[in-house]
Fold this sequence. Notes:
Residues 1-20 are annotated as: Disordered. This protein is mostly helical.
Amino acid sequence: MRSVDEGSPSSTAVSACPIAPRSFTPLAGRPLGRVRLCLASVAREQTRQDSWRAIEIIANTHNRRVESYLQRRRHRPWRNRGS
């Protein structure tokens, strides 16, 4: 181990300062980008699922209306305008 001069203000300032200079990009900062990408993809996936669910609800409602219409026509043959 090398000894550090206790009286030197520069040696104590560097070791006591927990904040890194702005030009320094630690490796620990890189996974934060991955976390942000992961969160963005989770949000995107949730939006996609919500969109598909909305489409399914609209399609089911439409199909129910069509089925209801066809059943009404079956029970009223005099309304059938076919040949």
